[in-house]
Write a structure and sequence with these properties.
The complex is a heterodimer. Chain A contains 13 helices and no strands. Chain A is an all-alpha fold. The termini of chain B are far apart. Classes of the chains: A mainly alpha, B mainly alpha. The interface between A and B is large, with 47 and 44 residues.
Chain lengths: 307, 301
């Protein structure tokens, strides 16, 4: 088990290094960088511009620049925002709790809605209730998340006045964003749980459980669901990618604090270091989250460890 | 005599090829035709595409023409989907918006299919170091949430609708590269590929003539489903203010415009959203049907 974890950790490191190179190169591929734009606007002369660039190391070869960036990044320094001149790391850490709350809450929503819906559809396989459940999940997967968010705001804030339309304070402000963000994933998880349950229902041990007189409830929950959830765990890992990316849009819809809003604002303001820092940070979070999923998969299914 | 014989055999070879090619797509079509839900999706999608194409003919109003007297009218017989804060007819704008949104999706998917296809073909055909290099690069792209990848590409290229198309296209590459690679891996083990190699057919010709046909059907399925994802992604980026800007009419941007008037004019954001939803539902139903028709074993995975 420990060996397996070590192995997964070793694989994650080159991925993170690769990501940092990819993100760094894309930011520095810019024809004219933000420093040019900003200093020219402030009326800096060509000589001042060159001096400034020299100070920031922007006149060095790209691999030297990357090396400087990587050395700082490992120590937790992602540079400074071009606009606010604040350290990028500080800004990210300020926004981190809000984004983590949102993603985790959305994950919980997707599991709490998705798994029961999938189990229900599988148990009622072939009936109209199965069709309705699957139709719901199809619609859930095809509605643009920002649109659902706005519909929620219209209904629950503008009309009913039950929930705040925006903000980051308190549990109430978390409800609509997390449901909005979790809806797509719950649709995906519902469909997969259903397929997986149907496959497990055909297994001999389910027949045995029924034959020895266990109640339908015990058969489904104790024997079928446990095994059916294994593929679901993998998909949960993949959904983290969607949730972290979707947070970018959901945070904007609900004017909620978070790394996603920070990233979008940075793109609109053409703030290179901030875009670089936020995107890289979220990507690394995704790699680590997947690592945890892989490990939990091995805990759940002993066969994986020996591969 | 000899010449005629040669020509005849060439012609019959061509014919054989044609029928084989036809039969592959024909089987898919036969399977698809029996699938009522998929056919419903196909008809719905066709209707949406046609209404976008003929928007200039059927739209009751000029989508850009402002009318101060008709500001923020609720849906009525004169304005089926109401009007916006400039008195522009929402129904006409939704029709025109479909042209942009569908076009965005199609171009983006074409970019993904082309680049992903070439990468997958090279990677699967040559194998060894080239394969490792390309596959690791694809893994790296997959290690980043798609919307973030698109976001950073938009940052590099600049805000705008064309750049959003490119960003969504590039961020979609991994899926196609993988499916093409795996199809190529199984195709290149076939005896006819070996035969072509022995006879001395150049690599590029083997890839084009003998391997590509095996790849078309799976790519068609993935591309159909990918079209829905691309439309959603592009609309999302436009919603964030990174894509379409006036006077371009696009569904995602229409929703973001309607957002400001949410409490007074629900229709502004509701109808473009329904349009996106219907389009993606149609595409998914058709895509699921194509997948089942192509390979029943993949059903409802």
């Amino acid at each position: 088990m420990l060996r397996y974890i070590q192995l997964r950790l070793l694989v994650a490191i080159p991925t993170i290094v690769g990501l940092s190179i990819l993100v760094f190169l894309m930011i520095h591929l810019l024809p004219g960088d933000a420093v040019d734009v900003m200093l020219t606007e402030q009326g800096a002369s060509a000589a001042q511009l060159a001096e400034m660039k020299h100070q920031m190391g922007l006149d060095r070869p790209i691999y030297v620049q990357y090396w400087m960036f990587a050395k700082d990044a490992v120590q937790g320094d992602l540079g400074r925002s071009v606009f606010s001149n604040q350290p990028v790391t500080t800004q990210i850490l300020e926004q981190l709790p809000s984004t983590m709350q949102l993603t985790l809450a959305a994950m919980i929503v997707s599991l709490v809605v998705g798994i029961p819906l999938g189990v229900f559809a599988a148990v009622r396989h072939g009936t109209w209730m199965d069709s309705v459940s699957m139709a719901i999940s199809l619609v859930g997967a095809t509605m643009p998340s920002f649109w659902i968010g706005l519909l929620f705001i219209f209904l629950f804030s503008s009309r009913l006045g039950w929930l705040p339309a925006s903000g980051t304070a308190g549990f109430k402000s978390l409800i609509m964003p997390s449901v909005t963000l979790g809806l797509y994933s719950s649709a995906v998880i519902a469909r997969l749980t259903r397929t997986s349950m149907l496959e497990v229902f055909r297994q001999d041990y389910v027949g045995t459980a029924r034959a020895k007189g266990l109640s339908e409830r015990t058969t489904i929950l104790r024997h079928a669901l446990r095994n059916a959830l294994l593929p679901v765990v993998t998909v949960v890992g993949l959904q983290i990618s969607y949730l972290l990316g979707g947070a970018v849009i959901t945070e904007t819809v609900f004017a909620r604090q978070g790394i996603g809003q920070l990233a979008v604002g940075a793109v609109l303001q053409r703030d290179g270091p901030l875009v670089q820092g936020t995107v890289l940070f979220l990507a690394v979070v995704f790699v680590i989250a997947n690592l945890l999923v892989d490990i939990s998969y091995a805990v759940l299914d002993p066969r994986i460890r020996y591969r | 005599m000899q010449v005629a014989e040669k020509r005849n055999s060439a012609v019959s070879q061509l014919d054989a090829k044609k029928t084989k090619h036809q039969s592959q797509l024909w089987t898919v079509w036969l399977g698809l035709r029996k699938n009522r839900i998929a056919m419903f999706g196909a008809v719905l999608l066709a209707a949406l595409v046609i209404s976008a194409l003929i928007a200039p003919v059927v739209a009751p109003y000029d989508p850009l023409k402002t009318a101060i007297g008709d500001r923020l009218l609720a849906p009525s017989r004169a304005h089926l989907m109401g009007t916006d804060q400039f008195g522009r007819d929402t129904f006409s704008r939704v029709l025109y918006g479909g042209r942009t949104s569908l076009w965005l999706g199609i171009v983006a998917v074409s970019i993904s299919v082309f680049i992903g296809g070439v990468l997958g073909l090279i990677s699967g055909y040559y194998g060894s170091a080239v394969d490792v290099l390309i596959s690791r690069f694809i893994d790296l792209m997959l290690a980043m949430p798609r919307i973030l990848l698109a976001l950073i590409i938009v940052f590099t290229l600049g805000v705008g609708i064309v750049n959003v198309m490119i960003a969504v296209g590039i961020s979609g590459i991994p899926g196609y590269a993988r499916i093409v690679r795996s199809s190529v891996l199984s195709a290149r083990e076939q005896v006819y590929v070996e035969a072509a190699l022995v006879v001395g057919v150049p690599n590029w010709r083997i890839m084009m003539r003998h391997i590509s046909p095996n790849v078309i059907a799976p790519v068609l399925v993935v591309a159909t489903l990918g079209l829905g994802e691309a439309i959603l992604a592009a609309a999302g980026l436009s919603f964030l203010g990174l894509g379409a800007r006036p006077p371009v009419i696009e569904w995602g941007y229409m929703i973001s415009e309607g957002r400001d008037k949410l409490s007074v004019a629900w229709w502004l954001m509701t109808f473009p959203g329904i349009a996106i939803m219907l389009t993606v539902i149609a595409i998914n139903l058709l895509g699921d049907g194509l997948r089942d028709a192509l390979d029943p074993r993949l059903r409802s995975r």
